[in-house]
Specification:
131 residues; alpha+beta; Beta-Lactamase; 7 strands
Length: 131
């Protein structure tokens, strides 16, 4: 299992998470609340292949930054339920990824707080990710 190191810029950190996910042939990056902390997990066919611990304060910084990378992002309030997508309009997607569908959820212990689902270009996916 790979441990993902945190960076200072939340947008750059999310893009790095997506690049790491592609390198692992993963199809999901999620943030799950666990008590007063959050776990950032990268999943390939349902198995966790990378993880990092964040504070809830870090999530409060990161999630609006992630929303800002989405197409047509307008209003976002931390803790609100929203869906959005990244198609490369505001930041380049990793090679082979055509879209990232993102769902934001209010923080609840033991539950998902953010789910980013990667959609691969069928011409570049090797098939090991289940895509």
């Amino acid at each position: 299992m790979t441990v993902i190191a945190a960076s200072l810029d939340p947008k750059a950190e999310m893009l790095a998470l997506l690049n790491n996910a592609v390198a692992a042939h993963a199809n999901v990056v999620q943030i799950r609340v666990a008590g007063d902390d959050a776990m950032v997990e990268t999943l390939a066919t349902g198995a966790v292949v990378a993880t990092a611990g964040w504070t809830l304060a870090r999530c409060a910084q990161a999630l609006p930054a992630v929303f800002g990378l989405c197409d047509g992002a307008d209003d976002y309030e931390y803790g609100s339920t929203r869906t959005a997508r990244m198609t490369g309009e505001k930041a380049p997607l990793p090679p082979g990824v055509t879209m990232v569908f993102i769902q934001f959820f209010p923080a609840r212990d033991g539950q998902r707080h953010l789910v980013a689902r990667l959609t691969y270009d069928s011409d570049t996916c090797c098939g090991t990710c289940g895509g």
